[in-house]
Amino acid sequence: MAFQDEKDAERRRKSGHDQKPKSSEVTKSARKRSAAPEVGSSLRMVYQQTVNEDIPPEMLDLLGKLG
Q1: Exposed/middle/buried for 35, CB within 10 Å: 0-12, 13-18, 19+?
Q2: Which of 9, 12, 18, 21 could be a cystine partner for 25, CB 3.0 to 4.6 Å?
Q3: What is the spatial distance between Cα 37 and Cα 47, in angstroms, rounded to a whole number?
Q4: What are phi and psi of 35, to 5 degrees?
Q5: Distances (CA, A) of 7 to 1, 3, 11, 17
Q6: Which DSSP category does 14 fall into?
Q7: Which residues contact 9 (CB under 8 A, 6 or more apart)?
């Protein structure tokens, strides 16, 4: 494919698909990730508590009737 002129070629090169993120954008995402370990730890703790809960007898009875 041949470009009609240099301006057309330059415009195609600047299409935005190949642009790298700006340093300010990287900094914002890095700040968001700094809180991630605390959130992740809290979610794991709540999940583990849920897994360790006893299954109510009524639920076990219902599951027994299904199987």
Answers
A1: exposed
A2: 21
A3: 15
A4: -85, -15
A5: 15, 9, 6, 18
A6: T
A7: 3
C-alpha–C-alpha distance, residues 51 and 62, integer Å: 19
Q: What is the pLDDT of residue 3?
A: 56
When computed from its CA atoms, the radius of gyration of the chain, rounded to whole angstroms, is 27
- For the question of whether the overall pTM of this predicted structure is more than 0.85, the answer is no
Give yes or no for a contact between 40 and 32, defined as CB atoms under 8 angstroms apart.
Answer: no
Model confidence at 16: pLDDT above 70: no
For residue 57, name the pLDDT band (cuts at 50, 70, 90).
Answer: very high
Say which residue the tokens 């599951």 belong to: 63
* Crossing angle (nearest 10°) for helices 23-34 and 36-52: 30
